[in-house]
Amino acid sequence: MDFAKFNELLLQSIGVGLAVVDPSSLRILFHNQRLAQWFPAIAEQPETLDVLIPKLDREKLRARLAGGRPFALNVDTRSGSRTLSFAVQITEHRSGGMNVLMVEWQNVSKIRELEYMIESYSKMIEKQNRELKKEKDRVEKVLLNIMPKTVYEEWRRFGVTTPQRYDSASVLMLDFVGFTEMAISEDPPALIAELNDIFTAFDRIVDQFGCERMKTIGDAYIAVSGIPETTPDHAQNIAAVALRFVRFLEKRNRTHQYKWECRIGINSGPVIGSIVGVQKYVYDIFGPGVNLAARMEALAAPMEIRLCDSMYALLPREYECIELGPVEVKGFGTRTIYRLVGGPDLED
Where are the alpha helices (H) located in the chain, listed in sequence order? Predict the structure, then answer.
């Protein structure tokens, strides 16, 4: 068998481009068919290696080979409308009493395309994940505005929440005097903007005293203390919030065009808290504690805070109340009513 011919046929059939190069001139002495397919010009006229590799650093190549190590690099070239990518390795060999360079060309275009696709897909996934996180944060922020955080965490983990009974909690009900007439007769956008500013200030006051804003209904504002986290100071916390609501409006009315006057009812008693609704969720509170707070708000005069005897008994002496006498309260019989007028650390 002609082994030389066999080796030549073998070189022509493999998928790797091969070239034998003179180390001094870098002239291509031999190349296989695969390399000629990638670089048709070398089939017509022998080329030097740095024509196929325009950015070849000859000095770096010689230094690398002199150390007995192969020289590897990546090469990109245009073939028609496509860009071909090659992994090239150059090694030095001795053959027939002379040194030659063996250059191997591995077509890695498919690998590069796959890497590009993977990178592009990864970037797309990262972008989608960022957008999903933004949407999740936005939804979470909305949900935390309509239910306490502990209730939200239970709902998020289990998909349902268990209605909770709180035997001792305090509720604040606030409503503005003449708001409907103001909204119709005055500038509605400006009026709503002011209402939003006031509710934002109320939220800060509520947070300051560890209470929770339950919800707003039109111009009504409802806050609680002792829900969902119980606290022995729920009565004085909600009383402090009510006093600061009134004080805030008094100061604001001195410098603003629209004069806002509120009625506030506060009460302590048993309350049930639960999420209600199937498609539209809302966290709400029910029970006699809530109903009696609403009755107190209805009895209050403008810029007054009303409460009854059951809550009055829970307030420390630092809270100043004026007794207004017994009143028949719908659904609760005769109750002694008080007006809350002062408390500790209340700035002028």
Answer: 3-13, 33-38, 41-44, 49-52, 58-66, 109-146, 149-158, 179-185, 188-208, 234-253, 288-299, 309-312
3-class DSSP state of 106? strand
How far is the C-alpha of 326 from the C-alpha of 332, rounded, in Å?
12
DSSP bridge pairs for 90:
71, 103
Q: Two tokens at 88?
A: 């090239």
Helix 188-208 and helix 234-253: axis angle, to 10°?
140
Q: 51: Cβ–Cβ under 8 A, 6 or more apart, which residues? A: none
DSSP designation for 278: S
The CA distance from 247 to 105, in Å, is: 83
Measured in whole angstroms, the distance separating CA 237 from the mean position of its chain's CA atoms is 32
Q: How far apart are CA 84 and CA 223, in angstroms?
A: 69
pLDDT band at 348 (very low <50, low <70, confident <90, very high): very low
Asked if 262 contacts 177 with a C-beta cutoff of 8 angstroms, the reply is yes
Q: Which amino acid is at 70?
A: P
pLDDT in tens, 108-151: 888 777 888 888 888 888 888 888 888 888 877 776 666 667 77
Which of helix, strand or coil describes residue 49? helix
What CA dihedral angle connects 183, 185, 186 and 192, to 10 degrees?
10
Determine the residue type at 147: M
pLDDT tens-digit series, residues 92-108 = 887 667 788 888 988 88
